[in-house]
Amino acid sequence: KLQILKLGINGPAYQYWERRMTEEKKSDIVKDLKKKLFDKYDLNLIEDDVLEDIIRHLLIEEIRDEYVTIEERIDITERVYDSIRGFGILDSIMKDEKITEIMINGPNEIFVEKKGSTYKLDQTFDDERQLEDIIQKIVGQAGREVNQANPIVDTRLPNGSRVNVVLPPISLNG
Q1: Bigger pLDDT: 13 or 103?
Q2: Is the dihedral of CA 45, 48, 49, 53 positive or negative?
Q3: How far apart are CA 83 and CA 79, in angstroms?
Q4: Rounded distance, CA 98 to CA 31, Å?
Q5: Are 110 and 121 in contact (CB under 8 A)?
Q6: What are the helix (H) ranges across 63-125?
Q7: pTM score
Q8: What does the alpha-carbon distance between residue 20 and residue 148 come to, in Å, rounded to a whole number?
Q9: Phi then psi for 36, rounded to 5 degrees?
Q10: In the predicted model, what is the mean pLDDT of the chain?
């Protein structure tokens, strides 16, 4: 946004400030875009680059009446794509090389370790089902299975990162 502070002999003085989108607003847009994608397309038949183009087009339609920074547009596009083809919000978290550990205690409690300190993130999974789907995707890639009969699994991601899954009834929060 642009605001005129004063008019002077040298012309107007301007102040520019950038309004950042809240995490809640980003999450709402991601959910809306995913719903539109699932309702309108058979995502199994769409190649990755085409999916990215569709997401960008839907995002432009969604935000046409509001200001959204390029960084926010990229972030939202990546979140939607990652939730369909990758590990959802975990993909963006794993891109941060300063993070040494990710701990998830249910869909609304994501913690990371950076430089020896633990921080709770504002980001959350959409719901319990989304978290369960990502867990199954991770362990499935390693040819493993996790369920109530087998609630503990140790495995590795394709990049070599260690994953430890503990489900109820062993874990208290999921």
Answers
A1: 103
A2: positive
A3: 6
A4: 28
A5: yes
A6: 70-85, 89-94
A7: 0.70
A8: 42
A9: -60, -40
A10: 86
Q: How many other C-beta atoms are found inside a 10 Å radius of the C-beta of residue 25?
A: 14
Q: For residues 164 and 150, what is the distance between their CA atoms, to the nearest angstrom?
A: 13
Give the distance, in angstroms, between the CA of residue 98 and the centroid of all CA atoms in the same chain: 17
CA 55 from chain centre, in angstroms, equals 14
Residue 109 confidence (pLDDT) above 50: yes
Using a pLDDT cut of 90, give the percent of the chain over it.
Answer: 45
Residue among 28, 32, 36 nearest 54 (CA): 36
Strands (E), the chain: 2-8, 11-16, 99-104, 110-114, 117-120, 152-156, 162-166
Angle, vertex CA 65, rays to CA 12 and CA 86, nearest 5: 120
Q: Each residue of 39-98: pLDDT tens digit?
A: 999 998 999 999 999 999 999 999 988 888 999 999 999 999 998 998 888 888 888 889
- Mean per-residue pLDDT for 134-153? 90
